Amino acid sequence: MTVTEPATPLSAATAAACADDGRLGEDDGGGRRRHVKVAIVGAGFAGLAMAIRLKQAGIDDFVVFERGDDVGGTWRDNTYPGAACDVPSHLYSFSFAPNPRWSRSFSPQREILDYLRDTARRHGVLPHIRLGTPVTAMRWVDDARVWRVDTPDGGVTAQFLVPGMGALSEPKLPDIPGIDGFEGALFHSAAWDHDHDLAGESVAVIGTGASSIQFVPEIQPHVGRLHVFQRTPPWIIPRTDRPLTCAEQRLFRALPAAQRAVRAAIYWGRELYAWGFTKPQRMRAPQRLARAHLERQVTDPGLRAQLTPSYTMGCKRILISNDWYPTLTRPNVEVVTDRISEVRRRSIVTADGTERPVDTIICGTGFHVTDFPAGDHIHGPGGASLGDVWNDRGSMEAYLGTTVAGFPNLFLLVGPNTGLGHTSMVFMIESQVSYVLDAMRHLDSARATTVEVRPEVQDAYNCDLQRHLATTVWNAGGCRSWYLDANGRNTSLWPGYSWRFRQRTRRFDPWSYVLRHEPAHPEAAGPGARVLD
Predict the structure, then answer these.
(1) 528 pLDDT tier (thresholds 50, 70, 90)
(2) Distance (Å, whole) CA 471 – CA 277
């Protein structure tokens, strides 16, 4: 059984629109590179938002590097069965590009990917995107005062570097003894093997997070036996999903203000959730609702006990599903809560000594969020990488999740502490993009060439941030989650209402930065590097 079809690649016309113009990033043998104002890395929500807003601001001198063969980021890569968003469609989209054609109140993966493709096309940024072009290194060149971005076919130099890879871009595989020697099929949910037939197989799913609760109900009817290995049960609430009617779609097309009003209502409704997250005791009422959802759908007391979390709701990501609990009650499904001690060639052994034969292992084990692997490829003045700097400090840190002391002209999108547990990340991305654009405008008006956040400003900001996080449900809710790094520090989430972040990033604050006016010399960035006309 092929569970689902992979996402359709870009059409020939769109691929042609993304094709290189013959100059961009190419090394002609003499080491010549194009110099651009802005180099963006990643063509998901963040990278496309930055590119479109640059275009709208009249800035065409930019390039977007994308390692994949299509735009879309995580919505291109995560094609597992049942993949969908857990934020309502009208909010999980760009404010400047409403989509009146959503088919459901919670969008499926394919529709989100199509939306991103269409938005990139309509806003004219496809010619700026280099598909299938991984960035191998990003280095600040001290003498030239530019970023040198290396790719397999050359790269560019740029005044500004904007990494927009996102937090959910690098799948994380479990570190279990013997897993490398497993002889059956093994894959991560973010790299689903659509060519592998699961029909009748004994399948092990490791992890019970946001991806697993979507694909497990989809594959359960087709497999022979399904072992769900659960480390910590999630809190789950009902998914209030429904088809959007033709009348609604016609209304939104004819009257865009109506869709904006719906979006605003959803946004402010979601903001109320943040009030609960800021204090664990405020989650008692939502927790009772989630417990009632569990009790309605799982009547077996033993299984219900296995699926009841022991921590305060919200400490880990709250999940939404109507079919997760019913699926776990099916005769061919087993929930395993004993720790996995070993993976053998064709089986999994748990700590109690039980060995379960399996044909396929599917890892729903999340992503590298708090260690940001891309940071090892971003090298600032003197050659130190962003990863090294963060390792020395013990945790990831940035100012407004966007700029980092010691790294001039670097603007991170979806950087440290910009994540959310209650509403749309697109809102945060747009806030950051607005801040970055205002910073660029300020540099141009001040005739400055570089900008770098003051270390004392970054330190004070993060001290205040962690002080606010200390009393939230994420830090004080009694669980261990991917929100916290190896040192127990929350480097993932914004501590409260998203409108406060929008308020902080509405205008660039030059007093928090050091601006320098030395002219850049791109030709000093490497052998033969020059500015192309």
Answers:
(1) very low
(2) 9
Distance CA 244, CA 355 (A): 47
Count CA atoms closer than 13 A to 351's CA, side-chain side.
Answer: 8
User: Where would I find the beta strands (DSSP E) of 32-122?
Assistant: 34-41, 62-65
How far are the Cα atoms of 118, 170, 217 from residue 221, in angstroms, in the given order?
Answer: 34, 29, 8
Q: What is the residue-averaged pLDDT of the chain?
A: 90
Distances (CA, A) of 381 to 1, 38, 399: 53, 18, 18
Question: Which residue type is seen at 104?
Answer: R
> Which tops the pLDDT comparison, 277 or 524?
277
Pairing type for strands 450-453 and 513-516 reads antiparallel
**DSSP-derived secondary structure letter, 419:** B
Q: How many CA atoms lie within 13 A of 475 on its CB side?
A: 21
**What sign has the CA pseudo-torsion 320, 326, 331, 334?**
positive
Q: How does strand 129-130 pair with strand 333-336?
A: unpaired
Give Cβ neighbours of residue 321 (< 8 Å, ≥ 6 apart): 213, 214, 217, 236, 238, 239
Q: Among candidates 366, 360, 365, 331, which has minimal Cα distance to 348?
A: 360
Polymer length of the chain: 533
Integer Rg of the chain from CA: 24
The tens digit of pLDDT for each residue in 21-74 reads: 333 444 434 456 899 999 999 999 999 999 999 999 999 999 999 999 999 999
**Whether the predicted pLDDT of 233 surpasses 60:** yes
Whether the per-residue pLDDT at 350 is higher than 90: the answer is yes
Residue 6 · residue 194 · CB < 8 Å: yes
pLDDT on residue 526:
59
Rounded CA gap, 37 and 439, in Å?
13
| One-letter identity of residue 266 | I
Q: What is the DSSP letter of 230?
A: -
Q: Judge whether residue 107 has pLDDT over 70.
A: yes
Per-residue pLDDT band for 533 (boundaries 50, 70, 90) equals very low
Compute the distance between CA of residue 533 and CA of residue 214 in angstroms, rounded to an integer: 50
Res 524: pLDDT: 66
CA torsion angle for 245, 249, 255, 258 (degrees, to 10)?
Answer: 50
Which residue do the tokens 């044909």 mark? 359
